[in-house]
Amino acid sequence: MSSINAKSYAKVVQNGVQAVQEVEELRRTGYSDNQIFVLAHDEDRTDRIADTAAASEIGVKEEGMMNSVANLFRSRGDELRAKITSLGFTEDEADFYEKELDMGKVLVIAKQNP
To answer: Domain named General stress protein 17M-like: which ranges (predicted)?
Structure first.
């Protein structure tokens, strides 16, 4: 499933290889590295894919300080949903994407600058 709204694009892919390919395609369409994010359910897997794809991870800049600190006390599922909504997705979309991540898939997000 892909979702496009005023600020963000998301695509669920099956694995890290497909995530890297999607990141490369987004770069070809004009997105820069700091506009492309990858997210997996496992934090280490997110780090590895982001490093391989030279993509960004969702951090304080995107989430804001309060959400970033709150994530220290949230379950991984709640943290993932908070990260997804911080990039402009609705709670329903975040729920859908988090369930996909639970099944081992990877989420690639491209965010346009305002």
So the answer is: 10-104
Residue 104 tokens read as 């081992």
Q: Which two tokens stand for residue 4?
A: 């496009």
What phi and psi, each to the nearest 5 degrees, are found at residue 57? -110, 150
Q: Where are the alpha helices (DSSP H) in 12-75?
A: 16-28, 43-53, 60-63, 65-70
| DSSP classification of residue 87 | T
Which of 49, 55, 111, 101 has its CA nearest to residue 80?
Answer: 101
Cα–Cα distance between 46 and 6 in angstroms, integer? 25
User: What would the pLDDT profile of 69-95 be if each residue is shown by its tens digit?
Assistant: 554 555 778 888 988 998 889 999 999
pTM, entire model = 0.82
10 Å CB burial of residue 97 (0-12, 13-18, 19+) is buried
